[in-house]
Amino acid sequence: MEKKKLVLIGNGMAGVRAIEEILKVSKDLFDITIFGSEPHPNYNRILLSKVLQGDTKVKDITLNDWEWYEENNITLFTGETVTKINPEMMAVVSDKGRVVPYDELIIATGSVPFILPLPGADKQGVTAFRDIKDTDIMLEASKNYKKAAVIGGGLLGLEAARGLLNLGMDVSVIHIAPTLMERQLDETAGRLLQKELEKQGMKFLLEAQTQEIYGTDRVEGLKFKDGTQLEADLVVMAVGIKPNIELAKESGIAVNRGIIVNDFLQTDLPHVYSVGECAEHNGIPYGLVAPLYEQAKVLASHICGQEAAPYQGSVLSTQLKVSGVEVFSAGDFMDGEDKKSLKVFDEQDGIYKKIVLKGNKIVGAVLFGDSKEGNRLFSMIKKEADISDTEKITILQPIGEEAGASLVATMSADEIICGCNGVSKGAIVQAIQEKGCTSVDAIKACTSASRSCGGCKPLVADVLQLTLGSEFDASSQKEAICGCTTLSREEIVDGIKEKGLTHIREVMNVLGWESEEGCSKCRPAVNYYLGMVNPTKYEDERESRFVNERMHANIQKDGTYSVVPRMYGGVTNANELRRIADVVEKYEIPLVKVTGGQRIDLFGVKKDDLPKVWQDLDMNSGYAYGKSLRTVKTCVGETFCRFGTQDSMGLGIDLEKKFEGLQTPHKVKMAVSACPRSCAESGFKDIGFIGIDGGWEIYVGGNGGTHVRGGDLLYKVKTDQEAMEITGAYLQYYRETANYLERTSAWIERVGLAHVQSVLDDKNKRTELNARMDEALSVYKDPWKEIIESKKTTKELFETVGIS
User: Fold this and answer.
1) Can you supply a Gene Ontology BP term from the record (predicted)?
2) What is the DSSP letter of 311?
3) 460 with 449: CB under 8 angstroms?
């Protein structure tokens, strides 16, 4: 039987999800053609902010790669836009003149960003934040400009601001409302969010109305209606989106705010459907992924001729992390008139919870700082659950198995685990029991749970453990370090120890690598694990390191390098400064910059000049390129400051000299502040020290980068010697148990602060860890001096080998 011709206009998340659902229902019913205006396969727009923040590549957010289209015999035209629908001919026409007939047509043109019609909105440096192209514009701007203004204090605006902040820009958020994210959060949660984001470095202008974007060719700033101004080199408009209905409108399809559809996502034109942000159902165009995926299921069943429950609209919920802060909202969360609320505010931990009731029925909720109960509350809101028989407020309940029965154990089968993809607990249990799924990855492949934002992975794992019971194998939840092997980090380290392996190729041969040579992901990891297990006998394999570590300098976009000499504790002297100045002049280094870690960075050094620059500087490497201790930031401390209670510079210098050159799973930064004012920002470092009367507080697991995290208080100690001992044991335990490329912030959340404290509380273990630390440090040699002294290495790296 000849297949029907199905055309999808729009290669975004909602449209392609509809195709996925159609393939599930009837794989062989349609000959499918997809048009996408962007040059990419289908990607996860929700995660664009991670690309902007710099820790994720476009390929990492791709939902359906090129192979998926081929495997499903889908014809994909990327970079091509449908400009006309001809209902009489039942065909579409593209901007490249391509004519494709259809039997069934799905319009999924999504939405377009709303650009405020301000004078100057067309200047260079003004962009939206909607797609990969916008992200690229912002990334490029951050390399050359420093002041960014984000218009819009909703979710998208705050994500853009966080990304630009990470890129080193000075960021101000302009918002017309008095509080942030007013569509998702009430006033209290909005102000709490503002306070947290201000700690991260964001600036806010609330109740501010932009009147004009000024500048010559490029934006130079904003003028506001009250007469004030703000300098800006980059302006990001994130004030909302509107359904992209132009094609439908020109084709005579009924539109309002969106393309009008019925309960089966049909337009008023025969054989034409619409789904996603461009569609309007019962007067509502939806902008969140969960309702769009619900629509996709209904459309798929109907277009395949299957009986389908009609789409009845969606109760909206939002569960996400805004710059590392957990927030959740659902339903009607504004109290007043016939609605009353229950509110709990834990000021110490920054947690706020609000439940809105209409009579005894829960109709809305807001959670800030702790959103793990979001799915359960959302399910109750959708059911209009009566809470008459529940205890509404309890205080200081003990933590433990008896008091805290698993959240998923109390959930009914129809309650949603994965809000993005609409996957219920029952669907996951069914996949486990009927399809033999035994891991989170298997559940993801089978049901799509955790496929979008990934926030529900812990709940999926809990359902697995609850369902499988004694058959649940925690080891089966392991993640292989890459696609070359099925082995986890623990299995590789154990194999190295048990079999006495000493070389990367030996590890791969003995432990059964599927790829003989390994890859750029596993080779550096294995290289680190070998050195960590046997530091005194292992010979570092330079070829398996990333280019910066191989060259002992940071490569820049123009092929030159930056050099950061070591300045212990951020302290320098006239001789060092004089040598730096002489080097800058001698080698015509174009940029000298003081870093955030209190060091001097020399940018624009030519590759073949690197050894000569190092020799003339006569300073140790600052390891600004390495997975090692980078820097120890200090305040001036009791030596000069009238508030200082401790010698912060002294401890900082001792720490940096002690752990200089230590190889770690990821970069490590420290800071020492002489008093609780924490001028060295000790609370947001991998290890931070804050002086108090009679000693030090030691904070661990902080991160001021992509995923901002405040440090946890590990110990209070009385002496510098105790601080050094605890630091050595802590760092060695991190070295031995963390995954390669796992920051301390992620590691401490994974293993738990209490667990680390229990290890370090054992004095014998602490002594053993420090002994192994001393062994690792005993082999350290400054790499710059090693290269200078080796003509062979200098020739190989800086004269004959090109770096791609």
Assistant:
1) nitrate assimilation
2) P
3) yes
From the list 700, 709, 699, 763, the residue with the least C-alpha distance to 734 is 700
Is 278 annotated among the ligand-binding residues?
Answer: no
Partner residues linked to 673 by β-bridges: 690
Structure confidence by residue, pLDDT tens digits, 336-351: 778 888 888 888 778 8
Superfamily of 4-110+244-304 according to CATH = FAD/NAD(P)-binding domain (3.50.50.60)
Q: Are 125 and 28 in contact (CB under 8 A)?
A: no
Tell me: is residue 635 an annotated ligand-binding position.
yes
pLDDT tens for 349-362 read: 788 999 999 888 88
Question: CA-CA distance, 460 to 458, in Å (whole number)?
Answer: 5
Instruction: Give the model confidence (pLDDT) of 470-485 as tens digits.
Output: 776 655 555 677 768 8
- Asked if 235 and 151 touch (Cβ cutoff 8 Å), the reply is yes
CATH class of 113-242: alpha beta
d(CA 20, CA 30) in angstroms, rounded, equals 12
Q: 575 is written with which tokens?
A: 């001789």
Please give the Cα distance from 155 to 277 (Å, whole number).
17
Q: Cα–Cα–Cα angle for 206, 212, 214, nearest 5°?
A: 115
Parse the chain into domains and list their residue ranges: 4-110+244-304, 113-242, 407-477, 489-545, 629-781
- Chosen CATH of 629-781 out of 3.30.413.10, 3.30.420.40, 3.30.360.10, 1.10.3720.10: 3.30.413.10
CATH code, residues 407-477:
1.10.10.1100
CB 390 within 8 A of CB 380: no
Residue 641, marked binder: yes
User: How far, in Å, are 380, 392, 424 from residue 386 at the CA level?
Assistant: 8, 12, 21
**What's the Cα-to-Cα distance from 399 to each of 346, 352, 395, 757, 758, rounded to whole Å?**
16, 19, 12, 18, 18
